[in-house]
Amino acid sequence: MEWSFLVYFSTIVLPILIFIFYTRKPHQNRLPPGPTGWPLFGNIFQLGTSPHKTIAGLKHEYGPIVLLKMGSVKTMVILSADIADDFFKNHDLSFIDRRIFDANRSKNYYKGSLALAPYGVYWRVMRRICTVEMFVNKRINETASVRRKCVDNMLLWIEKEANSKEGMKNGIQVALYIFLASFNMIGNLVMSRDLVDPESKEGSDFFNIMKRMMALGGSPNISDLFPWLRWLDLQGLRRKMDRDLGKALDITTKFMKERIEEHKSGEQKRKDFLDVLLEFEGSKNEPAKLSELEINIFILEMFLAGSETSSTSIEWALTELLRNPETMIKSGE
């Protein structure tokens, strides 16, 4: 069945699509120069094994602004610092939005994401909240003792596993413990509490979900090169992201509902970032309240960004230290 579909597609449908693409009238817009690409595939196969070097070399032939076609998607490349400076200073609003990949469209994730949301009222509101309520010295300094506690707990977890029979036999899952410690640091900043521990099934499940989501988000996707194939989801990446993002949102929803119940019961705790999001009331031309989905996605994004970056950097440092301790110590890393 699959082979018959491929034969049908390559002998009948593919030639028709190529004919349609290359017999359309050219756009009247003035476009930058660039190398002629392959039919349908554009310049994908011309970039070689070192795309960054290939693209940099195009400046000598086509100038500081080059147009490439990645599949059916036009991509403009700026190869001059001066022109890039002009773009982002004088034309920033025209180029401020990020391109949304198909995996990030799952459950409208990009609409609630500070990193991916289109420039507008919502993005400005969330940026202001972060600037005023989170990324300030006072808030960061208040969490110094919490961060120290999380690191101490991580070291105890590692020591405990190192002394266990299973740890001696299979090694230590350093990445897991770093992730859980980072997760708890963010949990204390956002929700004023530790959220997981190594023996927590929910913590392990969340760890695995996050790993899969980050892998799915970074996987090359045919749907991003050929948007007209998006509805087919040929690699199944969108379906997998729907599944994992749904599970992650279920976990963050549980945390949010627990906080709402605490408010109803009158339990008094120090105000944290979750309270800020729940109590937000917009002024003129701003949303009156943040929706449950927006809050959940925003909180999830903080855990994704904070846990992934810290885990990657610390795990790299520990790995390098184990491989070559003398070099790491001498270099001061």
From TrEMBL:
Pfam families according to UniProt: p450
Membrane-spanning ranges: 6-23
InterPro entries linked: Cyt_P450, Cyt_P450_E_grp-I, Cyt_P450_sf
Highest taxon in the source lineage: Eukaryota
Topological relation to the membrane, as annotated: Single-pass membrane protein
Annotated SUPFAM superfamilies: Cytochrome P450
Entry GO MF terms: heme binding; iron ion binding; monooxygenase activity; oxidoreductase activity, acting on paired donors, with incorporation or reduction of molecular oxygen
Keyword Protein transport: no
Entry's localization field: Membrane
Keywords, in A-Z order: Heme, Iron, Membrane, Metal-binding, Monooxygenase, Oxidoreductase, Transmembrane, Transmembrane helix
Any one GO cellular component localisation term in the record: membrane
Entry keyword annotation includes Transmembrane helix: yes
Family stated for the protein in its record: Belongs to the cytochrome P450 family.
Full protein name: Cytochrome P450
Native species: Fraxinus pennsylvanica
